[in-house]
Design a protein that fits this description.
Radius of gyration: 47 Å
Distance between the termini: 56 Å
Helix content: 40-55%
Number of helices: 26
Mean pLDDT: 84
Shape: elongated
Low-confidence stretches: 295-304
Number of strands: 30
Strand content: 15-25%
């Protein structure tokens, strides 16, 4: 074997922070932002400062990458330099209560307006009742009543006097007034009237009709007098009300510095208060009775009739602290109502009522003038929310809408609040797949979210970055209030972060994953009653995390050790190789060996992919098998027809198979079967192959090696076991200590191969062989055996074809 195994130094890259002068992370200065994310943070700054429409931001990055904290931190710092958002209040439109008015106020003035209006209502409730029950008002009211009562009485006195002149009398009955002949100051009895002479009766009848005309005229004037009396009372009330209301309104306006829209509404409020002053004069029991009557009779016409004083109140819709800067709102549950606002209802007398005081703000209202941060996936999972957000951004206005509006029944009285102008920067968070899906599926997305901040999940591992990484670890430790880490613990965390990305020259930037390791290491240190976290605490934390999630891995390994799953780790076999795959169960990934076998015979050049035939193989696996066919056809016996039929299968595989990381393994099995040469079963293989016979890189190389190593270690390491990996994967090796120790002691080997020829030599202990000047492979080489076998298949097929041909 000309290719030596890898040395222990090639299997792991240690961190060395000796150039940094610190004892624990307490001695390190924290970092102010994410490290290794300059490009993404530049995009965040650009989007935050760009004022043109459509330059909203989509932040791309995996969960736990720290993108939320980084974006929020930058926006918070920027927002402090900008003014707070405006306050918005909803008030009643006295001309159309179903369309509440939205008023914009300076930050912090909404509650002040509300306090002033509430004081006005309280003051009027107290003062109106006192004034209307006072001596002065009663005297003036009684004077009006006496004057109109005297005028009413004079009307009927004139009728009575005219009747008396004609010997008639004006009588009040249950049915009203009546005119009758007089008899000693009383109405004449009917019998006596009938006994009068006819001439007398006719004259009295004519006089009665004449007086009745006067009576009807008096009765007609009586309601007019009552109307005039009520007008006089209203005039009196208006005079009293206006004096009270003007005084209260002047107090409301004092120092308010009201904008024009608010000033116009206060003027309308002033007139409505004067007109509805009687609502303040009723005692509580009368108000309750009126409210009940309103609910029973006017509930559909005026929902606020259930509480007459609500019409004067103020709904402080959105308010901001003037000193807080521009608002930053994080909406974790972006339903339609929580995004664009909602209208609440209250049940009364079997109906659903609402008014302007029940209008509630959404995240867009609260973030107006600042920034709104939303998780994109959560937003898309909520019905109607994505479309509502797009409408708001396009129109630059927030319209409170509900999907139930179209289904509103006659028993639900709704309103239509005025739209509120919108000026907000929206920041969506999601991963790469979601970003590209939205960009491809929704043409509006690219128009509204023109800036993408793509947070990388890895960064280069070098001396400069190691120093920054140590400071990042110190920052997390201090923010989480954990025990400080000593230098060797920090080095171990960096090494683990390289293992997380499967690359010795890079480390993960996912702050959440780093923080998890630090928290669990802190727990281990606390259990051991230590004041600082050491390297062994980090090791214990990582081992404990593995143990918590490796149950399935252990069960699968037991199946191999108990020979339920057939995997040989010693000896040799023809057409049989141990391939390696990676399984992901939740957050735990582990390697699993699989036996791959190949069988060959004379045929028509067809390769049977058994996995594909039974629909367990995916397209990538099928592609790998076709590449094998291309490699064999172009490498061996190219001057004769392909006459081999081969079958390939993953033994004891009962699930789907996909990917091409086992294609080199399958090729080794085919070469072994064709050359009739056994392959070492103590050596497992991983790697894909191209048609030129070059071995290509695969993923999960550390897990694959360790998965096979664990089985070999359980059975006993013999020094003949090992793993073949692609040479391109050497830079990805960050193997656990047990593997490194076994390699160091010569009990386990790892070879990095670049070609199939290198790999087959290790597996068979025979030379692969290269063609000489005459185009022939050396005798006894693997390639010579394969080519001879393929020519033999071609000759056998030729003979069979000749003998099987029918005679002419």
């Amino acid at each position: 074997m000309s290719l030596p195994p890898l040395t222990p130094d090639a299997l792991y890259r240690r961190s060395d922070l000796s150039a940094l002068s610190f004892r624990t992370t307490k001695d390190l200065e924290p970092v102010e932002t994410l490290i290794g994310q300059d490009r993404a943070l530049e995009a965040v700054r650009f989007a935050a400062r760009m004022r043109a429409r459509g330059y909203n931001l989509f932040v791309i990055g995996p969960k736990g990458s720290g993108k939320h904290a980084a974006v929020q931190g930058y926006l918070s710092e920027r927002a402090e330099r900008f003014p707070s958002g405006d306050d918005w209040v909803y008030v009643n439109d006295f001309d159309d209560p179903h369309r509440p008015i939205a008023l914009k106020l300076p930050a912090g003035r909404g509650p002040e307006l509300n306090r002033r209006i509430e004081k006005l209502i309280d003051d009027l409730t107290a003062s109106v009742a006192a004034v209307l029950e006072g001596e002065d008002y009663r005297t003036r009211r009684e004077a009006i009543d006496r004057d109109f009562a005297k005028q009413s009485e004079s009307l009927f006195e004139a009728v009575a006097a005219a009747a008396k002149e004609k010997d008639l009398i004006l009588v009040r009955t249950e049915q009203g007034f009546a005119v009758a002949p007089e008899d000693a100051g009383k109405p004449m009895a009917q019998e006596k009237f009938n006994a009068l002479p006819e001439v007398r009766r006719e004259r009295l009848q004519k006089d009665i009709e004449a007086i009745q005309v006067l009576l009807r005229d008096a009765l007609h004037k009586a309601p007019l007098l009552e109307r005039d009396r009520q007008k006089a009372v209203r005039a009196l009330n208006d005079t009293v009300a206006r004096s009270l209301v003007d005084e209260e309104i002047a107090e409301v306006r004092d120092g308010l510095d009201a904008p024009a829209e608010l000033d116009a509404w206060i003027t309308a409020l002033q007139e409505d208060l004067v007109e509805k002053i009687h609502l303040f004069a009723q005692p509580p029991e009368a108000k309750a009775q009126q409210a009940q009557q309103a609910r029973a009779q006017q509930i559909q016409a005026d929902p606020s009739a259930a509480d007459p004083l609500r019409r004067f109140r103020v709904n402080v819709f959105v308010t901001h602290d003037p000193a807080a800067g521009a608002p930053i709102v994080i909406e974790d549950h972006p339903t339609l109502g929580r995004l664009v606002g909602r209208i609440e209802y209250r049940a009364q007398m079997g109906s659903m009522l609402t008014d302007f005081t029940l209008v509630r703000p959404g995240a867009l209202h609260c973030a107006n003038g600042g920034y709104l941060l939303v998780d994109a996936l959560k937003l898309l999972q909520q019905p109607f929310a994505w479309d509502a957000l797009k409408r708001a951004l396009y129109s630059a206005r927030v319209s409170i809408e509900s999907p139930q509006d179209a289904a509103t029944t006659a028993l639900a009285v709704s309103i239509q609040p005025a739209d509120i102008p919108l000026a907000v920067k929206v920041v969506l968070f999601g991963d790469q797949r979601l970003y590209h899906t939205l960009a491809a599926a929704d043409p509006d997305f690219a128009d509204l979210f023109k800036v993408a901040a793509d947070f990388d999940d890895i960064m280069d591992r070098n001396g400069e970055h190691d120093a920054l990484y140590a400071r990042l670890i110190a920052t997390i430790q201090q923010n989480e209030t954990l025990r400080p880490l000593d230098r060797r613990a920090v080095e171990r965390v960096i090494e683990h972060c390289a293992r997380l990305v499967g690359d010795k020259d890079r480390v993960t930037t996912r702050v959440g994953l780093i923080a998890d390791v630090l928290r669990e290491a802190d727990y281990q240190a606390r259990e051991r009653d230590r004041k600082t976290i050491g390297r062994d605490d980090v090791e214990a934390a990582l081992e404990a995390a593995r143990r918590r999630s490796d149950r399935i891995e252990r069960r699968m390994r037991e199946q191999v050790l108990r020979e339920t799953m057939l995997i040989d780790t010693d000896g040799a076999a023809i057409g049989q190789v141990n391939g390696l795959s990676v399984l992901q169960i939740g957050t735990h990934a582990f390697g699993r060996p699989s036996r791959i076998t190949a069988r060959v015979r004379t045929g028509t050049g067809r390769f049977v992919d058994i996995e594909r035939e039974v629909e367990l193989g995916g397209p990538l696996h099928t592609k790998g098998v076709l590449i094998l066919q291309g490699y064999l056809g172009a490498t061996y016996a190219t001057d004769v027809p392909a006459s081999v039929q081969a079958s390939l299968v993953f033994e004891q595989s009962y699930g789907g198979v996909d990917g091409d990381s086992a294609s080199s393994t399958e090729l080794y099995a085919l070469l072994s079967a064709l050359a009739d040469v056994p392959i070492r079963q103590g050596v497992a293989v991983t790697g894909s192959v191209n048609q030129m016979g070059e071995v290509q890189a695969i993923g999960g190389v550390n897990e694959k090696i360790e998965g096979f190593f664990d089985i070999c270690a359980e059975r006993g390491l013999t020094g003949e076991q090992g793993v073949l990996i692609p040479a391109a994967n050497t830079r990805h090796l960050m193997l656990k200590a047990e593997v490194r120790e076994a390699v160091k002691d010569g009990r386990f080997s790892i070879w990095a191969v670049s070609t199939i020829a290198e790999g087959i030599e290790i597996l068979t202990a025979l030379p692969a062989g290269e063609r000489d000047a005459d185009g022939a492979f050396p005798d006894g080489s693997i390639n010579a055996r394969v080519e001879a076998r393929m020519r033999a298949f071609a000759e056998a097929r030729r003979r069979f074809t000749v003998h099987a041909a029918p005679e002419a």
